[in-house]
């Protein structure tokens, strides 16, 4: 027994003094002391020769010895790790670092986020709907029944498997989805992607982006629509921007209008962008058609609303003077890197 204790003491001193300089030596240490045939195991095997009344005491001692070896191994590991970092001769710490290449937001995302943030300040919440939509939400509920001529204006992609389903042609479909579930007051904007079967060119694309707005409450008036949109335009294009409304037609609004803003390039003097009129169209809008409210069991005698829809690409074109729609989806980083936006 005495002999055994001395042996352990000797190993402990050895362990205490052990040093390693590389991974191989570290592994050799582990095998020598803590391996399956290591010294810790061999000392433990001596237990059977220890008299029964000493076993408990000896057991504690052995545990302590094992712990001692394990702690040392951990310590050596940590020292080895940090020394490979600090002293590695291949590393030259005086070299300049690699530049961190950060991405930029897509111009459409920058503009969408700006639009959303302006309307959020007016109390509008963001609503979303599916891009694969059914006929009801995209057309019929919006007062565009089958065979309505206005359907032809929107060259719709129908799903081959089931022509009741289509790729939404406008974000107005989200109006239908919200009014189906929510009771007034409703104050939402819906940003999203829409699809139309158009030949791709500088001025047309088979997909693009819109932001829809809808406000339904008691006593919402055209004056509210005008002021809301005027606020938006000033926030988006600056305090000097002017707006004008022209009568128009949309099946889901009555009366309907299109809104122009003073040309952002020439300020209204006339240039090629505004075709020398001084004005550029940015959105369609109007007072929600009473039939639409009825479709969703909202009483048109008690509630009125306004709605509007704008193209994000159009706003982007006016802000950044991008004149080819194809640039947005070509993902050319030379184009994309030019835009920096805080939001
Ligand atoms: N949905 C129309 C379009 O795609 C835009 C629009 C016009 C939306 C008038 C509206 C609205 O909500 O009231 O061209």
Q: Brief overview, please?
A:
The chain has 343 residues and is of the alpha+beta class.
Measure the end-to-end span. Answer: 76 Å
Major sheet: order of its strands? Answer: 1-4-5-9-8-7-6
CATH superfamily of the largest domain: Bira Bifunctional Protein, Domain 2
Beta strands, count: 9
Whole-number tally of structural domains: 2
Structural category: alpha+beta
Number of helices: 13
Helix and strand run? HHHHHEEHHEHEEHEEEHEHHH
CATH domain topology of the largest domain: BirA Bifunctional Protein, domain 2
Radius of gyration: 37 Å
What percent of residues are in strands? 15-25%
Give an overview in words.
By secondary structure, the chain is of the alpha+beta class. It has two domains: 2-86; 109-339, Bira Bifunctional Protein, Domain 2 (BirA Bifunctional Protein, domain 2, 2-Layer Sandwich). 41% of the residues lie in helices and 19% in strands. It is built from 13 helices and nine strands. The strands form two sheets. The protein has a seven-stranded mixed beta sheet, sandwiched between helices. A two-stranded antiparallel sheet has the order 2-3. A hairpin with a 2-residue loop joins β6 and β7. The radius of gyration is 37 Å and the shape is elongated. 3,4-dihydroxyphenylalanine binds at residues 170, 172, 212, 250, 252-253, 284-286, 307-309.
């Amino acid at each position: 027994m005495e002999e055994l204790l001395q042996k352990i003491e000797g190993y402990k001193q050895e362990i205490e003094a052990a040093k390693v300089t590389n991974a191989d030596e570290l592994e050799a240490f582990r095998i020598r002391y803590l391996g399956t045939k290591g010294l810790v195991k061999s000392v433990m095997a001596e237990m059977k020769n220890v008299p029964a009344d000493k076993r408990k005491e000896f057991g504690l001692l052995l545990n302590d010895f094992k712990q001692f070896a394990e702690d040392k191994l951990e310590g050596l590991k940590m020292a080895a790790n940090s020394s490979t970092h600090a002293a590695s001769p291949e590393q030259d710490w005086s070299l300049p670092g690699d530049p961190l290449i950060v991405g930029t937001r897509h111009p459409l995302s920058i503009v969408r986020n700006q639009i959303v943030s302006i309307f959020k300040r007016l109390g509008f919440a963001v609503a979303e709907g599916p891009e694969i939509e059914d006929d009801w939400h995209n057309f019929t509920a919006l007062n565009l029944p089958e065979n309505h001529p206005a359907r032809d204006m929107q060259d719709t992609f129908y799903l081959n498997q089931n022509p009741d389903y289509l790729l939404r042609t406008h974000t107005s479909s989200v109006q239908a989805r919200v009014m189906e579930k929510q009771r007034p007051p409703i104050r939402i904007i819906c940003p999203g992607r829409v699809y139309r079967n158009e030949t791709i060119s500088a001025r047309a694309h088979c997909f693009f982006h819109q932001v829809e707005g809808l406000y339904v409450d008691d006593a919402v008036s055209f004056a509210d629509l005008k002021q809301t949109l005027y606020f938006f335009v000033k926030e988006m294009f600056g305090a000097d921007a002017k707006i004008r409304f022209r009568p128009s037609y949309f099946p889901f609004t009555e009366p309907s209008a299109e809104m122009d803003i003073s040309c952002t390039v020439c300020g209204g003097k006339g240039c090629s962008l505004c075709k020398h009129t001084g004005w550029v169209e940015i959105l369609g809008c109007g007072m929600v058609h009473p039939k639409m409210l009825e479709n969703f069991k909202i009483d048109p005698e008690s509630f009125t609303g306004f709605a509007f829809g704008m193209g994000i690409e159009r706003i982007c074109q006016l802000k950044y003077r991008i004149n080819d729609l194809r640039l947005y989806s070509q993902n050319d980083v030379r184009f994309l890197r030019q835009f920096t936006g805080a939001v």
